[in-house]
Structure formats: structure tokens, C-alpha cells
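Q: How do we represent a protein-ligand complex in a form that can be generated cell by cell?
A: Start from the inputs.
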Amino acid sequence: MGLEEIRKQFPILTRQVNGKQLVYLDNAATTQKPEAVINAISEFYLQSNSNVHRGFHTLSEEATQQYTAAHEKVAKFTNATGIEEIVFTRNATEAINLVAQTVGRQLLVSGDVVVLTEMEHHSNIVPWQLLAKEKGITIEWIGVKDDFQLDEENLRFILGRYGDRVKLLSVVDVSNVLGVRNNVKQLISIAKQAGAATLVDCAQSVSRFKIDVKEWGCDFLVFSGHKLFGPTGTGVLYARKQWLEKLEPWMGGGEMVVSVNKASAIWADSPWKFEAGTPNIAGGIGLGAAIDWVDRNIDFSEHAVNEKDLIDIALKGLSQISGISILGPTDSTERFGVVAFSVDKVHPHDIASFLDEDGIAIRAGYHCAEPVHKRFGFGSTARISFALYNTKQEVEAFLDSLSRCIKKFR
Ligand SMILES: Cc1ncc(COP(=O)(O)O)c(C=O)c1O
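Then emit the C-alpha cells for the protein with pyridoxal-5'-phosphate bound:
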């Protein structure tokens, strides 16, 4: 499907902001939703709204069938074995917390090591810091080299130093600040040889690369449904069946049990054992619709070509403006989805506000990844991020607005 056709499917892209045509370049935070997803959610509320798993009436059966089908779609999309490996969460953050609160609390002991990287999003840092406080585990870091690539030797060094006390490697696939893609397959292979479990954060990669949990052989994989054109309030944890069978749930309540007496309870099978309480049914169904939409319409390799062009234009344009420092590689072949930068003497918040006057939505701050900013001596940055509906004209509009902004503030 061509770019124009794709854009037509996202109703919000036609709206005006501050009297100007919206240019949405904040896709790393959340993507816009195609009509198919919006329709699936309203169709659910118009026709089938009911609770899942517990009713024997038609609406409840429809809701249960559609919600279960959404899990099946995610299982197929990620090449998981089946829905028993797919837990729906509120977002990627909750999925990582689920692993920290189950694997971490139930299986790790003081002195065990969790390995992260310096380019992680806070959602893959703070849950482990909470666990470190509670259980006395140690966090070790794979550094980022000056060329913005991970220093894989650090992982070998950590494994050599701690041996089988290293229990988990938790690593981001595509960085939401540097835009680099890590060699996840290689990192998983090294960690597995040392007996460590592995978690991959695909929040930024899920909308641009085919995810295949079997090809990687990871134990856990997380992503946000809302960054894959699905509704907000949706996220996914993939976990190998053996893990979900052996782990105890982290939250208790209805929907996750088959029987309860005063002394104890018997858990439902996975994934429901990890989805306590009434889930985000409409959101889950909307996520299923988003996956159908991607499957029907999107060829990731075609969009990679368009995105590379956009990044090229952005990088070239930015490099021609004096006083701009780009955080991350300046070669578009090493970058996916995002370009973060700072401007000498102009605060990123002022840039974002100025651009908003022109209808251009970008982000300013640390993008929940403060350590990687600090690693490269940056304060907060401005960030543009793309999705498959962005155009060259939009990047040019951004560059034009940014130039005017800099003139005004300097
Ligand atoms: C790399 C990465 N991981 C995790 C997250 C957290 O996603 P969510 O806020 O949907 O939990 C984000 C969000 O920006 C991200 O970019």
C-alpha cells in the first residue's frame, strides 16, 4: 500500500493544530491509530460489550472469543507457540514489572545479577532497582561505546566475573534515543551459553521489524500495543511456556483462578493466571485489529526504505544548522525511528512549544532514558520520531520550523 493510501487510514492525520496541518513526529511515544482499530473498539462497545470468561450469555461469549482471538493474533505475530505464552498487560512497562515481580521476587536471591545496558528506557531500569532494594540483587551494565554501539565485551566480562550468579540479561532491541538496533540474537546467545535468562524490549522495534521469538530464542519479550497502532492501555509479555507454568502469579483476584477456598486457590492456566481482574477487553480486541491491519497492509522492508529517506533528510538538514548536536549515529543506516538532538542556547521545551505553534508535534526531555543522555554528556533533548505514515514534506516542514525557532530564540 502506498504512503497516500496509508495516510488515508489514519483519520487524525487530517486534523489541524493551531490552524496548521498536523505533522505528527512523536511516534516513539505512541503511534496514531488506523480507522480499522478505532472501528474494532467501537464495534465491540456497540455490539458485544460484556465481561470475559465468566458469562454464559451471548455477549460474554462474543467478548471472550474476541479477546482470546486477540491473544492468538499476537501469538502468531510473534511466532510464539500459542496463547499460553502471551500475557496482555497495560504497556511494555507493566510487562517488564511482571517479570521483575515474578522471576525476580520468586527466583532471585541476594547476590544474583541482572544485566542491563546503558541505553535502556527507565521501564527496564527502575523495576530492577526496586528489586535490588528489596532483595539485594546486583545490577550490572553493558556500556555504550563512543560509536553508540553496545560494548558486547562488557557482557563477556560480567559473565566471567559473576559466572552463574548472572540470572537475567534484559536488553532493548531499538533504543528510543540513539535509534541504534542491538545485536540481540548474539547477546541472547552469549547469555544463554552462560545459563542466564533473557528479556528483549521491543517497544520501538515492533512497528518496524518482524519479531520472531523462536529465531531469537529469548525467554521473555515485551512491547507496547499502543506503539504498534493499537489502543493505549495495551502491552504484551511473551514468555516461554515453561516460565509461565512454573511462576506464581504476581497479582491475585478474579479471572486468574479456577477455584478458591478459605485457605488457598488454584490458578487458571496461563495466560489468564497472569491477567487478574477484568482486563482491558476493548483494548485487547483493538490490539488484535492493529495486528490484522499490519498483517494485511504493511511490508516492513518497504517502509524501512521510506523511513531511511526521512532519517537521511532529517540528519542532513540538522547538520546544516549551526549549534545542533545529534545524540546517536549520524549515518542513517545505523538509525531506526528516532533522531534526538540538542540546540546550543535553545531549550528543548522551547523548541517543542514553538513547533507546536506550527502544528508540529515533537517531544522534549530525557524520553525516559536519562542514563544514556548522561553517558554522552547531554542534558534533555528534542526528539523527532517516525512511523510508516510520515512523509518527506513533513520532515521538511519540521526543519523549516526549527530554523525559524532557532533564529527567534538566539
Ligand atoms: C524502548 C522503550 N521501552 C519501553 C518503553 C515503555 O513503554 P510504555 O510506556 O508503553 O510502557 C518505551 C516507551 O517509550 C520505550 O521507548
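The radius of gyration is 22 Å. The longest strand covers residues 166-172.
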